[in-house]
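User: Fold this; tokens only.

Assistant: Input:
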Amino acid sequence: MTTASERLLRRLEWQVVRRLDGLLQGSYRTVYRGSGIDFAELREYTAEDDVRHIDWNVTARMDEPYVRKYTEDRDLTAWLVLDQSASMRFGADHGKDSVLAELALCLARVVAQGGNRVGAILYDNKAQRVIPPRAGRNHLLYLAQELTRPIPLRGDGSTTRLAAMLELAAATARRRSLIFVISDFIGEADWERALSRLTQRHEVVAMRVVDPMELDLPNLGLVLVEDAETGEQLLADTSDPLFQQRFRDLVGEREDAIAASMKRAGVTSHIVGTDQDLGEALVEMVRRSKRRLR
């Protein structure tokens, strides 16, 4: 009998993954280039080089910037760092948690082509789980099963500790890897330094899952609004122009702060809305990444 995880994976393969195959055929490193661990050579720095590869000792001796080049690994290890906190359960029929699961499975399926290994870190303040990287379809089905498993509410009145999630990823991924961080980035705002540290060793792609109502609250009249992270409730009149303006101001401040932190950390952030076609969102992400590497 076909299981729910098998049906989900097959649906995503048919509806989403096959649309990416043409863009990623052959090697995933054509989009996300990583460096291996074997030193190859030293050469003068050029504008296209990653400043993280500058050899500062040689640069100081030569009075010219030099970079260390490495031979590429033949295989690729990818990690899915997945935020499963309370705020990710926002939304009705197709909420942020559903989009996160589908997005993670599509990425795992694409990366797993050619025998590459994929692991996952499922993170909530109260519970964290590490799924070691493996290859093969059985592993993908296992990931699908774990990602669609109902998550019990564990709200303790605290906001998501995003820095702790990223620090767990840095401690878990010992070998240089491609790391996808999928979150709404709603939580404690001290995650920038942890993200910067993660990028020093790994290729990091941040993917923000957002619901349209988090960016533009419609006029619903008098509603009871609850903070998914802390459980705090507020009675709000969404028809009040002053409330709407204050809401837009707060959203703008939050979006600007997240974008600035991503930029300072050296990470490209991709936004995926719960109302978007997942295939189109991923195709655009790949195209943006290719343009960035040219």
